[in-house]
């Protein structure tokens, strides 16, 4: 199961590199969400079959257009031209050991 989740996350990142139209969603703690700003950064996680910790260098915030699938109890923001650093564990993220680094990504952060 562990490898299946890793493969799914890497496939998602690789798919993004190919199509450039996929938007990655990153769950953040509320203090990270509130502090997010243009050219800043946030820590969060990508949730797939497994939870993957990420560090995101934010690009420019653009207006978020709500989706009918959005949870009304969740806050959303969107940034373009971000860099995503994905690790398997929090410890690896803290040490700068990444399983994937991807630039020029559009990211929705939510909490």
Give the SSE layout.
Layout: H1 2-19, E1 23-27, H2 30-35, E2 41-47, E3 51-57, E4 60-62, E5 76-86, H3 90-95, E6 100-110
Parallel strand pairs: 1-6
Antiparallel strand pairs: 2-3, 3-5, 4-5, 5-6
Tags for this model:
6 strands; alpha+beta; 111 residues; 6-stranded mixed β-sheet
Describe what you observe in this structure:
With 111 residues, the protein is an alpha+beta fold. The protein has one domain. The protein contains three helices and six strands; from the N terminus they run αβαββββαβ. Strands 1, 2, 3, 4, 5 and 6 form a six-stranded mixed sheet that branches. The longest helix has 18 residues, at 2-19. The radius of gyration is 13 Å and the shape is globular.
Task: Give the count of structural domains.
Answer: 1
Name the beta content range: 35-45%
Which structural class matches the secondary elements? alpha+beta
Give the topology string: H per helix, E per strand: HEHEEEEHE
The value of Rg in angstroms is 13 Å
Percent of residues in helices: 25-40%
- Major beta-sheet overview: 6 strands, mixed
Question: Helix count?
Answer: 3
Mean pLDDT: 88
Number of beta strands = 6
Taking pLDDT < 50 over at least 5 consecutive residues as the criterion, the unreliable ranges are none
- Shape type: globular
Distance between the termini: 26 Å
């Amino acid at each position: 199961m562990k490898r299946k989740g890793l493969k799914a996350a890497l496939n998602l990142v690789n798919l993004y590199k190919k199509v450039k139209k996929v938007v990655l969603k990153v769950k953040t703690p509320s203090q990270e969400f509130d502090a997010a700003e243009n050219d800043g950064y946030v820590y969060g996680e990508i949730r797939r079959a497994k939870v993957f910790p990420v560090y995101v260098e934010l690009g420019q915030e653009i207006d978020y257009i709500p989706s009918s699938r959005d949870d009304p109890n969740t806050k959303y923001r969107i940034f373009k031209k971000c860099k995503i650093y994905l690790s398997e564990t929090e410890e690896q993220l803290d040490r700068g050991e990444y399983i994937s680094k991807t630039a020029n990504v559009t990211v929705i952060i939510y909490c």
